[in-house]
Amino acid sequence: MTYSSLPSILLATLFAVALAPRATAQVDYYCECLQGLGPCGNDQPTGIPGGCFNSTGFKGFLGPNQGSNSVAADDLLLVAANLPPNQFGLVFMGGGRTQVPFGDGVLCIATGGIGIFRFPVRDSGPWGVIEEGPGLVAYSVANFGAAGAVTAGDSWHFQLAYRDPAGPCGSGFNFTNGIGITFTP
């Protein structure tokens, strides 16, 4: 399968559309792997959000699947899709943005003077999907200390790093796109 194959584009588009209607969270999608950013030419523009192409021929995509950006509700579910099956990955968050080629993808999260905090390692299973949440707020409060606790008014940036042993650049890992969320009460 080539990176520009029509089935890959259609499947990624269907997934992106399927995510949007169920989530009410206000999300800023950014750090897509646009032409010139892919470490080994795995950055073909498609008009579909996501990171750089991986070994599946897809762009790993991170977005909200359900829930809101309310701290009190703490119901936000982030889902990463189009990942290699049965590989490990983890969602991490930081206070700032960057856009630096790294591994087979682009690192989108920076400390923002606050730090970078990671959620538990997850397995993408046979479908190449990793979920994080609901409970992002509670997890951050319990595990990241005061600096990493998600509170109302905070803006945090999220991304998923994942293993990709057969990836196009040979580094063994890749990233999804980045998303920014400002949390409300």
Summary keywords:
alpha+beta; 3 helices; seven-stranded antiparallel sheet; 12 strands; 185 residues; disordered N terminus
Q: Can you characterise this structure?
A:
It is a single chain. The protein has about 180 residues and is an alpha+beta fold. The chain has one domain. The chain is built from 3 helices and 12 strands. The strands form 3 sheets. Strands 1, 4, 7, 8, 10, 11 and 12 form a 7-stranded antiparallel beta sheet that branches. Strand 5 (about 95-100) and strand 6 form a beta hairpin. The longest helix has 14 residues, at about 5-20. The protein is globular, with a radius of gyration of 15 Å. Mean pLDDT is about 90; it is low at about 1-20.
Question: What does the overall shape look like?
Answer: globular
Mean pLDDT level: 88
Query: Rounded to an integer, what's the Rg over CA atoms?
Result: 15 Å
Secondary structure tally, helices: 3
**Which regions are unreliable across 5 or more consecutive residues at pLDDT < 50?**
1-21
- Please give the largest β-sheet: 7 strands, antiparallel
**How much helical structure, as a percent, in the residues?**
10-25%
Taken together, the total number of domains comes to 1
Order of helices and strands: HEEEEEEEEEHHEEE
Distance between the termini: 45 Å
Strand tally: 12
Task: Report the sheet-strand fraction.
Answer: 25-35%
The helix-and-strand class reads alpha+beta
